[in-house]
Backbone:
């Protein structure tokens, strides 16, 4: 039995029974369902197809429900987007209304996986004013990272709670918790899944999670080193070092660890 496992994301391009069967025959061990996309009806059908094929082929395949988490994004902009020119001061709408309470003047705010860099100037409910350091064209709903700030938004949104309840009902094996910052985030999800036997995999993608990693690991059943967001939240050259440290700690704890996504 190979110790290294293969995780595959199942989406519209791979939802057919024939494609899923080929993936299982090729070595898929875990089917990841991304709850950032798709309705419950779609996920339900995918889970049942995977379970049926797993039984047919006599190949164990775990199902992991990956929760969206509280990703903070740029709000609605004109369809053509807004050009951010270096040195300019710009006001943008944001999806986290209380952002202005958690960010200090001068904190870096990175947009679209760090392609654009700004610094915080001021804000009010649902909007922020920033100075552009490295510009580009920003469009609606682009993700943002806050490497200098500690945000008070919780790791579980109302959508995540509904998705977790659905995942438990459908009998998934794992739930992946996004944007974890503290052990309390894990405990909150654990209360929602109590008695189900579903295991919790924490995604390490925030700088706060690095600082409290050992405490988070103690509460979790497994770890996913999400190098994409982590490479934006922390200096890119530190990611391989921290990745190796976390893998070592997981092995000492006897807990599975997954290395996922390419560094930003």
Residues:
């Amino acid at each position: 039995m190979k110790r290294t496992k293969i995780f595959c994301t199942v989406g519209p391009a791979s939802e057919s029974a024939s494609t899923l069967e080929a993936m299982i025959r090729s070595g898929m061990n875990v089917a990841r369902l991304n709850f950032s996309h798709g309705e419950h009806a779609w996920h339900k059908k995918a889970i049942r197809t995977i379970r049926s094929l797993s039984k047919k082929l006599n190949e164990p395949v775990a199902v992991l429900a990956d929760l969206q988490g509280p990703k903070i994004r740029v709000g609605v902009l004109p369809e053509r987007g807004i050009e951010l020119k270096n040195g300019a001061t710009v006001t943008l709408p944001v999806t986290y209304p209380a952002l202005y309470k958690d960010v200090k003047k001068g904190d870096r705010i990175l947009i679209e996986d760090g392609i654009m860099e700004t610094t915080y100037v001021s804000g009010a409910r649902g909007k922020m004013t920033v100075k552009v350091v490295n510009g580009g064209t920003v469009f609606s709903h682009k993700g943002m990272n806050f490497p200098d700030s500690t945000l008070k938004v919780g790791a579980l949104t109302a959508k995540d709670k509904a998705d977790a309840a659905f995942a438990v009902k459908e009998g998934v094996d794992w739930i992946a918790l996004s944007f974890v910052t503290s052990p309390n985030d894990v405990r909150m999800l654990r209360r929602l899944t109590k008695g189900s036997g579903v295991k919790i995999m924490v995604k390490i993608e925030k700088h706060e999670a690095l600082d409290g990693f050992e405490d988070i690991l103690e509460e979790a059943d497994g770890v996913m080193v999400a190098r994409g967001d982590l490479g934006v939240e922390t200096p890119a050259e530190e990611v391989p070092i921290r990745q190796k440290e976390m893998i070592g700690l997981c092995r000492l704890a006897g807990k599975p660890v997954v290395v996922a996504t390419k560094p930003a």
About this structure: The CA atoms of residues 8 and 31 lie 5 Å apart. The mean pLDDT is 95.
